[in-house]
Specification:
Structural class: alpha/beta
Strand content: 15-25%
Helix content: 40-55%
Order of helices and strands: EHHEHEHEHEHEHHEH
Strand order of the largest sheet: 5-4-3-2-1-6-7
Mean pLDDT: 89
Distance between the termini: 44 Å
Largest sheet: 7 strands, parallel
Number of strands: 7
Low-confidence stretches: none
């Protein structure tokens, strides 16, 4: 088992919302607004997913990624930042954060930043873990056509029933046959 980075934002027993900027993320965040207000989940932005949270009026507790597609504003608003380093250990996002005067942890781990966000939330005991804007079907994994998608499938298998896809929740809420 790899040594986990220190991340103070993650807490056992609290729900976690992992936000990426994939298909339907805005609709899903709007559908989850009441849940976010009442349950106060740990808000994790995956790179630009942090901007999605900021655009909705929330401050990310944690941003995870290589920091190439997240705004300076979101980086400054986040309570904590974790730079996803490449396999060779390089972490260009650290330079950007230093220039902004912001601290961050660094973790080299195979797979995607989204995988890291979900896996860390799981390992630190956050339950449930709600994925927003994430890939959720084998077809989407294949269509993405990039390396790292195998780890996404493995992470989802590990999380099992701890992971809920927000897209499913918004489908249930909008399906008039179920109301």
């Amino acid at each position: 088992r790899p040594r986990l980075p220190e991340v103070s934002a993650l807490r056992a027993g609290r729900p976690a919302l992992v936000v990426a900027r994939g298909n339907g993320y805005r609709k899903d965040l709007r559908a989850l607004e009441r849940f976010i207000i009442s349950a106060r989940p740990i808000l994790i932005g995956v790179d630009g997913g942090a901007d999605a949270l900021v655009d909705m009026g929330w401050s990310p507790d944690l941003i995870i990624g290589d920091m190439d597609s997240v705004s300076d504003r979101a980086l400054r608003m986040a309570r904590e930042r974790l730079v996803h380093a490449y396999r060779d250990g390089r972490a260009p996002g650290v330079d950007r954060l230093r220039e902004l005067g912001l601290a961050a942890s660094v973790w080299a781990f195979p797979g995607t930043s989204e995988d890291i966000a979900m896996l860390l939330a799981y390992e630190f005991g956050a339950r449930p873990i709600i994925a927003v804007g994430s890939h959720y079907s084998p077809v989407e994994f294949m269509e993405k056509g990039r390396s790292g998608m195998g780890s996404t499938l493995l992470v989802r298998m590990k999380l099992g029933t701890s992971l809920i896809d927000a897209r499913c929740l918004s489908i249930l809420q909008s399906d008039t046959r179920l109301q």
